[in-house]
Automatic annotation (TrEMBL), chain A:
Residues 10-238 form the ABC transporter domain. It comes from the Bacteria. Part of the ABC transporter complex PotABCD involved in spermidine/putrescine import. Responsible for energy coupling to the transport system. Pfam families: ABC_tran, TOBE_2. SMART domains: AAA. It comes from Streptomyces carpinensis. Its EC number is 7.6.2.11. InterPro entries: AAA+_ATPase (IPR003593), ABC_SmlMolc_Importer (IPR050093), ABC_transporter-like_ATP-bd (IPR003439), ABC_transporter-like_CS (IPR017871), Mo/tungstate-bd_C_term_dom (IPR008995), P-loop_NTPase (IPR027417), PotA-like (IPR005893), PotA_ATP-bd (IPR017879). This is Spermidine/putrescine import ATP-binding protein PotA. The complex is composed of two ATP-binding proteins (PotA), two transmembrane proteins (PotB and PotC) and a solute-binding protein (PotD). The keyword Disulfide bond does not apply. It catalyses: ATP + H2O + polyamine-[polyamine-binding protein]Side 1 = ADP + phosphate + polyamineSide 2 + [polyamine-binding protein]Side 1.
Automatic annotation (TrEMBL), chain B:
It comes from Streptomyces carpinensis. The keyword Isomerase does not apply. SUPFAM superfamilies: MetI-like (SSF161098). This is ABC transporter permease. InterPro entries: Bact_Polyamine_Transport, MetI-like, MetI-like_sf. It is a multi-pass membrane protein. Keywords: Cell membrane, Membrane, Transmembrane, Transmembrane helix, Transport.
Length: 384, 266
């Protein structure tokens, strides 16, 4: 693949979908560059699958256009688009064997000698031995690989993956994530991957678009999204965030000084996505692993210039590599703190008074007008 | 108690064999009596072994004619009911339209209604319309009652079919016709085949509805019924046995084919 080839670019302009009065996808613009691994991340019902189906042609958009490279494919039926899909349930044809499943796309396009190509493709996904079996005779992971092979053999401009790993168990899922990443690097095709699993999106994709309620909340590289969330949804949906409501006090240099529960917190201006006027409210965010815990007796040993909060440990759970603490503080009922188990302080047990401190550079600021709990995964969602 | 233990272990097999015997005994009798040379006109008592009837199956006046009519009606009724029933089943599962619920329950009515009632009301209908009773009225009646069975069999199959399969086919460059022929039809095929087989069997041996609406046409079941009053020719047993053997052969071949396929693939 040459870098000048843009025929695998996917450009969505103002694309939206409504069902009666329900808006599944608000008009959105999105460009996925040729050869990238792009993830659409969001909880179920956020419109990510609908967006994918509009790219595939299985769903007619209510507004906007879909471009592949320079070609407008908005009104092309799915069988005329150079795009293939790996479905969530794999959708392998039960009446055909593995070989014929993989050969299906080639045969429909009138290609006569398919044997060599199908065998090569089955080798790529390590299923050469299973060619004459029926789909139901294979394990979940094998079926998944057949679904990938069946789509990839057509050399589509874009491969769409609709929660392709959702039905697999955790260990297999990890393995398949690496496998898919390997295949993508090998074939250089644009992959658009829909998932609700934030870890999966971050491990595999170059670029992640976080979707919520039919809108793209934020788009960026996994590190960018994690370190600089711009909305409470992104902050809570990707990993865990501690969000503290604070009042803007003064500005000094490139920093904003905030008041929270009598103490002062410093936030670099560049990391604040909200308008910060003196007296206004901002949500201060900090990731649990960025916080250090010190027992209240040693508070004097904490270096100057760090943001600090006082609190009391409510709960501590030992996870092996780290210990996860829940700390109660005057500014927030539940602060999560993850401490690596390097040098464990025996005094940090539930009931102990502690000081939480972190580098101001790790602080981020969000607009306080948002729902502070947006994107927090509930127990039901976890189970689904 | 070795005997009791022996019995315990084989109880299922014994029960199975007894049930099988109960089911097959009438067929055995029919077969045995097809080799009989009866005294007089009734073939109810074993006399002498003879293959005369097998050598001359059409030796009885009108019998092979009625057999041919029955087979023709069965074939056409099967084709008609299967095509219509499959389309109805797809429509009922795939589309939302007015009166869908009503059709869904009305389609069961021919199965639930006593045949005699249906036969009489059909006859009334045909007479009122001034239709000439015969081959065509029988065929229309047969398609009507076979339809319910085809719809039921195909509907079950189509309902359990994953709609993503057709989407996958469209995604893999199959147009609407190709999608139907390569994916939808093959997956629905077992249901369609079951409906068709059922239709053939039901149409071939139907007596009550046929008898009411046949006019002067005589089907094979009507011939058997009619001759039973005056004496039963051995040839009826010959035809019965032949039908039974063809059915068994049919089942055995299809079993052999599926076995061989799964052996190849395993």
């Amino acid at each position: 693949m040459t870098t000048t080839d843009n025929s695998g670019d996917v450009r969505l302009s103002g694309i939206g979908k409504t069902y009666g009065s329900f808006t599944a996808v608000h008009p959105l613009d999105l460009t996925v560059p040729q050869g990238s691994f792009f993830a659409l991340l969001g909880a179920s019902g956020c419109g990510k699958t609908t967006t994918l189906r509009m790219i595939a042609g299985l769903e007619e958009p209510s507004s906007g256009t879909v471009h592949l490279g320079d070609q407008d494919v908005t009104h092309l039926p799915p069988y005329k688009r150079p795009v293939n899909t790996v479905f969530q349930s794999y959708a392998l044809f039960p009446h055909l064997d593995i070989f014929e499943n993989v050969a299906f796309g080639l045969r429909r396009r009138g290609i006569k000698s398919v044997k060599k190509q199908v065998e090569d493709m089955l080798e790529l996904v390590q299923l050469g031995e299973q060619a004459r079996k029926k789909p139901h005779q294979l394990s979940g992971g094998q079926q998944q690989r057949v679904a990938v092979a069946r789509a990839l053999i057509n050399h589509p401009k874009v491969l769409l993956l609709d929660e392709p790993l959702g039905a697999l168990d955790l260990k297999l899922r990890r393995q398949m994530q690496l496998e898919l990443k390997r295949i993508q690097t090998e074939v250089g095709i644009t992959f658009i991957h829909v998932t609700h699993d934030q870890e999966e999106a971050m491990t595999m994709a170059d670029t992640v678009a976080v979707m919520n309620a039919g809108r793209v909340e934020q788009l960026g590289s996994p590190t960018d999204l994690y370190e600089n969330p711009q909305t409470t949804f992104v902050a809570n949906f990707l990993g865990t965030s501690n969000l503290i409501e604070a009042e803007v006090d003064t500005r000094s240099g490139g920093d904003i000084v905030l008041k929270a529960g009598g103490g002062k917190l410093v936030l670099p201006e560049a990391r604040c996505s909200a308008p910060a006027t003196a007296g206004g409210k901002v949500l201060v965010g900090i990731r649990p692993e960025k916080i250090s815990l010190t027992h209240a007796d040693d508070a004097g040993a904490i270096p100057e210039g760090r943001n600090r909060l006082t609190g009391r440990i409510v709960d501590a759970s030992f996870i092996g590599v780290s210990t996860q603490y829940v700390v109660e503080s005057p500014v927030c009922d539940e602060l999560a703190v993850y401490v690596q188990n390097v040098e464990r302080d025996g005094r940090l047990v539930p009931g102990a008074d502690v000081v939480l401190h972190w580098s101001p550079a790790h602080t981020f600021g969000l607009d306080a007008a948002q729902d502070i709990d947006a994107g927090v995964e509930t127990v039901e969602e976890e189970a689904a | 108690m070795p005997f009791v233990n022996w019995l315990k272990r084989r109880l299922v097999v014994i029960a199975g064999l007894l049930t099988l015997a109960y089911l097959l005994l009438p067929n055995v009798i029919v077969t045995v009596f097809s080799f009989n040379r009866p005294k007089g006109r009734f073939n109810y008592q074993w006399q002498h072994f003879s293959t005369a009837a097998w050598k001359n199956p059409c030796g009885v006046a009108d019998m092979c004619g009625s057999l041919s009519i029955s087979l023709q009606i069965a074939v056409w009724a099967t084709i008609g009911a299967t095509v219509l029933g499959t389309m109805i089943a797809f429509a009922l599962v795939r589309y939302r339209f007015r009166a869908r619920g009503a059709i869904n329950s009305l389609i069961f009515l021919p199965m639930a209604m006593p045949e005699v009632v249906m036969a009489a009301s059909l006859l009334t209908l045909f007479l009122n319309m001034g239709a000439q009773l015969g081959f065509w009225t029988i065929l229309i009646a047969h398609i009507m009652f076979c339809l319910s069975f085809v719809v039921t069999a195909v509907k079950a199959r189509v309902m359990s079919m994953d709609p993503r399969l057709e989407e996958a086919a469209r995604d893999l460059y199959a147009g609407p016709v190709q999608t139907f022929l390569r994916v939808t039809l093959p997956i629905a095929a077992p249901g369609i085949a079951a409906g068709a087989l059922l239709s053939f069997a039901l149409s071939f041996d139907d007596f009550i509805i046929t008898n009411f609406n046949a006019g002067s046409t005589v089907t094979f079941p009507m011939f058997v019924w009619g001759s039973a009053q005056r004496g039963t020719p051995v040839q009826i047993n010959v035809i019965g046995t032949a039908m039974f053997l063809i059915a068994v052969l049919f089942v055995l071949t299809s079993m052999l084919i599926t076995n061989r396929r799964s052996n190849q693939r395993a």
